[in-house]
Amino acid sequence: FYKEVAVAPADGGFAVLLDGRPVKTPARNLLTLPTERLAAAIAAEWRGQVDEIIATSMPLLRLANSVIDGVTAKRDEVLDAVMRFADNDLLCYRAHQPPDLVARQSAGWDHWLDWARRRHGANMTVAEGFNHVDQTPDALMAMRQAAAELDPFALGALYVIASITGSLVLAL
Question: What is the pTM of this model?
Fold first, then answer.
């Protein structure tokens, strides 16, 4: 398919070149990366392809494609999806018993909620059990502002981490 993989400056970022031609995303956008380090890591993924191109063996390329083709084009939709994790943040739902579990949850999670309050002004409401608790509009607005300040690559990573952890607080 190609013999040489290189990284070169392009459009305020860095491109991965295969035999001198820039890689494109599935939607035919140029694969322009924000850092040379990320471009080098994706170039290494391309170098690791031997007899056939196996997309699943290139997780950074897949993430970059998702960000360029999806997050950048649908930023508001991604922010809305991220906010679902704030509205139902795993750290805000606690057991009421047994006492040792209650203590472990408090010890492990309270400092993250304190951090969200100090860093972002998000005073998240904590509840016992699984019944939904509404977060205050101020807390949700603060969490949205924190997510909205991120560049598309960080926002894409935030979404992935929040979906794995069930917590926007932890993802931030």
Answer: 0.84
